[in-house]
Write a structure and sequence with these properties.
- The chain has helices at residues 36-45, 57-66, 70-73, 80-86, 98-107, 151-161, 170-177, 186-192, 213-239, 254-257, 275-287, and strands spanning 2-7, 13-19, 22-29, 50-53, 93-95, 114-120, 127-135, 138-146, 243-247, 266-268.
- The protein has 306 residues and is an alpha/beta fold.
- It contains eleven helices and ten strands.
- The protein has one domain.
- The strands form two sheets. A five-stranded mixed sheet has the order 3-2-1-4-5.
- The protein is globular and about 60 Å long.
- The chain starts with a strand and ends in a 19-residue tail after the last helix.
Length: 306
């Protein structure tokens, strides 16, 4: 039995291939979709009996309609069945909620029986933040927050504001934040956290010079850390666990991650906790298999800085 987990047709792509319930291949790409040549190669070497998709595309289109992204709503090239058919893959397809893919990827690769699972990213279908409980091999969603309030969109919008590339260079904003004065722009940044920043910060009232970038970054990082800390306390309260699985693109913020020890005794994440690992989670959410024998790379975003 060969199963595929797929995440593609977005800003990043990944494929996870399971053979007899073992993960035998995991690969992620930096382009907009897995190249056809690669799918043909994988189909030749590991012809799938079943495909698990990392999100629910029709639910996603309802959110795109709400956001006024009509070009995306009517772009039927992004329908997984049509995409797979174009690549001559005829295996049946099962869809997985976006945040469930993240949560499952973390929990079923972790060493924990009972834990809190926190997923923070830009957008799933509608969810932008969620708290789950993993217990005795099952995961249950306990809380979520929905679009347009989003820590991921917030961070990316300000990444764009200071002339860095959103979805690519958030780590540079984080690096700049340690050099800046957070108080200079703190009120301006705070006022915009709960607004819709999907299209960026469009009402910034000041001219931005290069020397302002580090002060804006410092304010953004401070607000980000306040909000994540609130969610971590909520996860602790809801689950009563001293163990955390932390997933989603926001988990890459290594500066905040130094504070995780204030809430949790044990923490688990994957080397790529954002969309690349959702290909793994799309499968594990349904099979509920634990991956004990896969050799994961070091998780750099959880390293303790001294």
């Amino acid at each position: 039995m060969i199963t595929w987990g797929l995440n593609c047709l977005n800003h990043g792509s990944s494929i996870a291939i399971f053979q007899h319930e073992r993960l035998v291949h995991w690969q992620f790409f930096t382009d907009d979709e897995i190249p056809k040549l690669d799918l043909e190669y994988f189909e030749y070497k590991y012809r799938p009996d079943k495909v698990y998709w990392y999100e629910r595309p029709w639910i996603k289109k309802t959110r795109q309609a709400y956001a006024g992204q009509w070009r995306r709503v009517f772009d039927f090239r992004a329908i997984p069945k049509l995409y797979l058919k174009a690549n001559k893959i005829s295996a049946p397809i099962t869809y997985t909620p976006h945040h469930a893919s993240h949560a499952a990827a973390g929990y079923y690769t972790s060493p924990f029986n009972h834990c809190a699972i926190v997923v923070l990213d830009a957008i799933g279908e509608w969810d932008t933040m969620s708290i789950w409980e993993g217990k005795h091999g099952e995961i249950t969603k306990l809380w979520s927050n929905r679009y347009p309030t989003s820590l991921g969109l917030f961070y990316s919008a300000f990444t764009d504001l200071i002339q860095l590339r959103p979805i690519k260079e958030e780590y540079l904003l984080q690096q700049l934040s340690v050099q800046g004065d957070r108080n200079r722009y703190l009120n301006d940044v705070l006022r915009r956290y709960n607004t819709n920043l999907h299209k960026g910060v469009r009402d910034w009232p000041y001219t931005i010079n290069p020397e302002d970038h580090k002060d804006i970054a410092a304010a953004v990082q401070f607000v980000f850390e306040l909000e994540v800390d609130t969610i971590m306390r909520k996860a602790k309260e809801l689950t009563g666990s001293d163990s955390l699985v932390y997933m989603g693109g926001c988990a890459m913020n290594s500066k905040y991650n130094q504070q995780l020890k204030n809430h949790w005794q044990y923490v688990w994440s994957l080397p790529m906790p954002g969309d690349p690992s959702s290909a793994i989670g799309a499968v594990l959410y349904h099979t509920k298999n634990r991956l004990w024998d896969y050799q994961w790379n070091p998780v750099k975003h959880l390293e303790i800085k001294t």
